[in-house]
Amino acid sequence: MPDPVPVARRALLMSVAFIAATGAAGGALAQPAADAAPLAAIMERYAAALRSNDVEALVGLYAADGVFMRENFPAVAGTDALRAAYRDLFAALKVDLSFKILEAEVAGDLAWLRGISTGRLKVLATGVETADSFNQLVVFRRIGAAWKIRSYLFASDKPAAGSTR
After folding, report:
1. What is the pTM of this model?
2. What residue segments make up the domains of the chain, in order of their start?
3. DSSP tag of 31
4. Per-residue pLDDT tens for 61-93?
5. Class of the 4-156 domain?
6. Rounded to whole angstroms, how far apart are CA atoms 61 and 53?
């Protein structure tokens, strides 16, 4: 039986690709990136909350059914699971990342962005600090007048240990 995490990642990516290609969100056509300014503002608030270890601010950026998918960890979904995941993250790491949006589209009440984050991570148990960078894919849903993170997926942009890439 296939590992459910890679299957879930493929399903999310295929869904986003379909929405982006067809404008299938409510029959709306994809809008230019200028309409994505609110998404950039959310990512700036996300980065600030990471730097200040603000679990509640992070959870508040997500939809109630939001999903957080970290590399090498099971996906978590829903407010309580998000809260626990970010608490666990901050118990292990000090995070200082900035985000750069490479592309974004808005289609009705759904939107997505692809970006990179770069900065420093410090492992609290050892004190080891490293420069890191990550690819990310974020899907947003408009709820009322506000955009919320529906799904956030990130993975290192560095080859895995032992990779021939």
Report:
1. 0.77
2. 4-156
3. B
4. 999 999 999 988 999 999 999 999 999 999 999
5. alpha beta
6. 14
